[in-house]
Fold this sequence. Notes:
binds flavin mononucleotide; globular; two-stranded antiparallel sheet; TIM Barrel; alpha/beta
Amino acid sequence: MKDTLNIRSMKLDGRIVMPPLGTYKCTEDGRVTESILDYYAARARNPLISMIITEHSFIALQGRSQARQMSVSDDGDIEGLRKLTDVIHAGGAKTICQLNHGGSTAVAGLNGMPAVAPSPVAHPSRSTEKDSKLPLELTEEQIGQLVRQYAEAAIRAKKAGYDAVEIHSAHGYLLNQFYSPLTNLRTDRYGGSLEKRLEIHREVIAAVREAVGSDYPVALRLGGSDYMEGGSTIEDAVYAAKVFEEAGIDLIDLSGGMCGYMVPGRNYPGYFRDMSEAVKAAVQIPVLLTGGVKTPADAEKLLEENAADLIGVGRELFKNADWGLQ
Ligand SMILES: Cc1cc2nc3c(=O)[nH]c(=O)nc-3n(C[C@H](O)[C@H](O)[C@H](O)COP(=O)(O)O)c2cc1C
């Protein structure tokens, strides 16, 4: 468990990590609070945890999905985020900032502007808005602006002291809406074939890489399979992971797509291991597997069986900062 792993400039001293978990304990405008600092400090002190991916943070107000969600959309956020990375580093863990745009999950009433998405379709597993209005279809010009917003957010994260950034394309949020054939009905260069549904990812990865420089690790969380009729599949995830590796991604973090972070009917440790094993066989970069791990022995077994290079422990750590130490 104490095996080290180098991901570009980031050196991890163990293979168990804390995946992103929304606490929604920020201020109304998404700034870090004392209770957030205490929560992360306690988990960073757990010697079993080598790295914490902090909760999904909105890159632009239009992409905010929930009240009190963390923000990385404004330069004024940097000061609070710096305090957050400081407490995590003081606890002995590395930390990654998860960059997100909610797309059609963004709540219009909350943000005072309409939700946007690749196509004006209802989200397969979430209501779009309280009044069930469909999201507006993004224009190519707006997509260009979004790509720049990811890059600007990445710069803020780096300035705030994060060791890396993670581009969020899982759980049915905006980039995952482009990836899934259920929500991307576009006929321009951003939709149609899988190749085209990945185009916005290529552009975001290139812009983020340009913004943070060649030495800084960039991860991507992919909701690789929707586990739904007509949705994305594990085969798509394998193809996409190869595209991401080629585009310069340093770590693939796997989870579900439109189904969210669970697979109906599965509750065993490593319930996405069918996907992580298939992806791991196809790429050289490290693969992170999360879902269903309850004990350090569960994580150890998944690592021994080569199901992934890193194992995430979510809800158990959410409940108990001292997970695994008893
Ligand atoms: C309360 C809660 C909040 C979550 N927030 C996020 C998030 O911000 N970003 C994300 O990618 N996943 C999020 N997830 C998914 C977790 O990262 C993880 O994939 C999921 O909990 C499954 O792992 P576990 O079985 O170890 O809990 C969240 C899960 C829960 C329960």
